[in-house]
Amino acid sequence: MTEFVLDEVPDTIADRGVWSSLRVQLLFWVCSFVLGLLGLIALLPGPITKVFGQSDPRACDLRRSSQGPSSDHVFGTDLQGCDIFANVIYGTRTSLFIGLATTAMCLFVALIVGTIAGYYGGPIDTLISRLTDIFLGFPFILGAIIVLNSVRRPTPIVVSAVLALFVWPTMSRLVRGAVRAVRRTEYVHAASAMGLSDRRILTGHVMPNSLGPVLSIAATVVGSVIVAESTLTFLGVGLRAPSISWGLQLANAQSQFAQSPHLLIFPALFLSLTVLALVTLGDILRDALDPKGRQK
Amino acid sequence: MRAARTICGRVFELIVVFFAVTFMIYAMVWALPGDPVASLSGDRPPPPNVIAQIRAKYNLDKSLPQQYFLYLGGLFTGDLGTTFSGRSVSDRMSSRWPVTITLALTAWVIQVVIGITLGMIAGLRSGGLLDRTVLIITVVATSIPIFVVAVSSQLIFGLRLGWLPIAGTDAGWPISYLTPACVVALFGLAAIARLMRGSVIDTMQSDFVRTLRAKGIPHRRIVGVHVTRNSVGPVLTFVAIDLGFLLGGAVVVEGIFNLPGIGQLLFSAIRTREGPTVVGVGTLLILIFLVLNLLVDLVNAMLDPRIRRD
Predict the structure, then answer these.
(1) I want to staple B80 with a disulfide (CB 3.0 to 4.6 A). Which of A129, A254, B269, B280 is the partner?
(2) What share of chain A is helix, strand, coil (3-state, %, to 5)?
């Protein structure tokens, strides 16, 4: 349940040198390492869980219900006696998938809509910016609740699509801002003076140069979406039982939390760490792309 | 004259958005696969005449536009439909308003007061230990899902320490509302502190502050009056953005802490699979958001001459 607190896209478009300013930051490497590790976990959950003994998240033993961490089960077992570590590892894939899929869908729509609005201006621009203004701060959890409530079997892709429905306006707003900043630059004027077609100017010059600021926000959006998914699942409109996700584990842990806090702590730890890495990475990228906005 | 035009324009916009949002929600809810009548009855389908009767009662036998206009008509006459158990949705809501409003206002005061204070302190001593601590806390606070914070604080302050009530509103305001309000306020508080910090840093470096210094105005007065007034702009704008979060957070927090407000109605309706209640209450909350958003925007425009001009 995180709304976005987005700063405006910087007016100045950064030159080269972004990489050299990133390279020297320890925090950038820490975040990249954490995210790389999580990506690896999401790709190869099987071998990783095997290292710690219990490898099947669905192999549950009711006799060992809600036990604390032990050498057999490093993170303990849940109410059904399933290994929490295996579930957390397998849940990584679902959570990252939803975060990335939603953001990809939003980016796709936002790039088209935002570019058109930002480059051409006029009545289309007015319409789109008013629309995106309204969605700034829109309680998208409520919107998602209403829509998901009538979906019978929400799969990860359905949940992503519904979240994307409410997140894309925020991203379009940012693309529009970035494109407007690029449109005023000399090289775009030059390209249009040379008689290049709009399509070529847009795909060859405007889009690549306005992508940077948007991608830095995208990292933050992935994090927010992961939090939103877990909240929706917790409320009971998100993913359901055969799926494995952090949100589901957290939802199931709530009733048992007082007796066995490890049910909640481990999935929550993974989730928060992922989101923390994504949000921090987004912050670092934004600062690197906009030297003016760097923390003084 | 200009102001009147702006207000008319914004109200017109609101009306357009209102129709767009309600129709979008309505179309999506009914266009999606899954039959609400079938999901009502469990494994064994009811006889066809019962299905037909229920369909007629909830206007499900009519075309989509027809259904939508019937629904709109209901909305304007304060009729949000009836739940499947036969009670009217608006009836169930009337007694719940005070709880939600109290929660939202308490949370709002907490986040504005603490957020601005923290942001001021961090901004005035930027780079210091306290500044870094505030920055780290604000980032961490936004990366933990609200329900995890809610459940944990319920366990720690309610169950283990026993300082505050675990759930319900029996202890009255402010005791019962303290933990839930702090949980809802956490996200906004973090954002306000960050915004205020950046804004204070910018203001402290501006020319007019240097002039004030040169004129010999005491530091306390510069910070207390001039810097504060000139730095709260972004925070005021954020308050409008934050409304949506307060409303969404209220659903989770009222559910967990069992506060009998509007949010809890939505929370329990999801659990008991009462589609009409979920749609009715959810739509209403979104409409409230739209109206409040407009009001905050207009107030902002009146307060800040820079916004008023465009």
Answers:
(1) B280
(2) 70, 0, 30
